[in-house]
Amino acid sequence: MSDSDDDLLELAGIGSDEESDYEPKVTAGRRKTAKRTIEEDSENEDEDEELNPEEDPYPLEGKYKDEEDKMRLMQMDESKAESQTIEKGSTSKKLRTSKLSELKKQREKKSVKEDRKRKGDDDYMDVDDEDEEEDDDDADLKELAGYGDEDEEEDYYSDGYSSSRKGSSRPKAEFDQSQYRDATLDEINNKIRSTRSVLEKFLYRDEFDTFIPGTLVRVNIGPSKVTGRPQYRMALVEEVRRGGKPYKLFGKPCNTYLKVSQGDSATVVELSCLSNSPFTDEDFDSYKKRLSASTTHSLPTVGYVEDKFNELRNMSTRRLTDEDINRMMARKEELSVYEMNTAARVRKLGRLREELQVALEQADRQRANTLQSEISQLSKFFKGTQNTSKLEQINIRNQKSNQEFIRKAEKKLVETKRKQLQNNDFNDPFSRLRTNPKVFYKSAYKEDDNTQKSEEKAAEEKDKNKIKNSVFRREGIDALIKDINIDLNFDI
């Protein structure tokens, strides 16, 4: 099974990352040839040796080195585990590519021998058997090469998961009655579960908006407050909405959203919030509990699951025409502008305008209308970036107004000076005089020193005046003696 078959099976919930690779059942319709020569058996044994699984670096389920590696990935976060799984898939694909050339050489040798053998074995092999063997050879080559393009998806669903309505030999009454039975968790997981990776594969197809609503998805609602691990809820896709705010999906811009519901509650989520893992019993029980309280929703029946399964299979197996591919490329081109920087967008806009001018000169109205539509789309993107901040617009407008006012004032001043020079009149009393400012510095240290000196001088002058005005200076020593009181007591 090719890589694209694995991705396509995920659209119906088959072959998820946590399960082993899906092995299609061998149907009874495959007929073997009447005779197998010993030479053919030896060739098949040689081919099996070329595809020996021991040479695969990931022999366990095609994704793990051993049980220890499997347990380690299962304990990791889903996004990290998915990235490592993708890396391992690319490694395995390179290994298959290296073996492809050897297998082709063996096919060429085998075809030469079969041509010789058919000339003598026409009585034992009919045309149908020859076609079936050729189909087997082509399928092996495609599987080894890992063809995964969207136009190589005819074998999306195998006979092992084919609709139960085909080839059924039960009575009609019993058949109709079974279609109204509630679908089980395994039936939902295997047939109508949409995953993030596969939705991204079919995102740009025309049938996506019609067939994806009605499938079930596993939505990540954030980490648990108790355990801190991501929490998931089972939800029904109600509607596909395009043209929203772009976000990153596998590193690429995406503007598609899904309206999902759980009972009577509905919300809009990004495709990046969806899980690639299958629904668990806990998810299923929680979903049934919400549906039991709803008056408008119920569990899907077996008949509904079969019908939706057939729709998904028809979408995946339909051959893409040139018009389909052109429309898908146009949708991707519309989103590529979000990956460009400003300079690249400006260059693209200029190139589109030049092409529009050429189309108008050549009177190519269809081409001109297409280019005009692209220019309008790109211009809207520029308008959206300019209108992100109203305050920024006001600031820009005020700056322009101030610059214009200054320019006019300077122009008026130049005109006034020119007139003064012509009239030799510089006595305008209202004109501003040119002055040169002069700054005087005064040290605080000098001020403190002068204050201290003046205080000391004042104290000295005060002492001098006190001595000068004393009694001794005015009346002499006798005046001082006269004022002395002597206490004498005489005993007689």
From TrEMBL:
**SMART domains per the record?**
Plus3
The UniProt regions of compositional bias labelled Basic and acidic residues, in chain numbering, are: 62-81, 99-122
Instruction: Report what the protein is called.
Output: Plus3 domain-containing protein
The segment(s) forming the Plus3 domain are 183-317
Alphabetized UniProt keyword annotations: Coiled coil, Nucleus, Transcription, Transcription regulation
Record-linked PANTHER family? RNA POLYMERASE-ASSOCIATED PROTEIN RTF1 HOMOLOG (PTHR13115)
Please list the residue ranges that the record marks as compositionally biased, kind Acidic residues. Answer: 40-58, 123-140, 148-157
From which source organism is this entry? Answer: Pichia membranifaciens
What Pfam families does the annotation carry?
Plus-3
Superkingdom, taxonomy of origin: Eukaryota
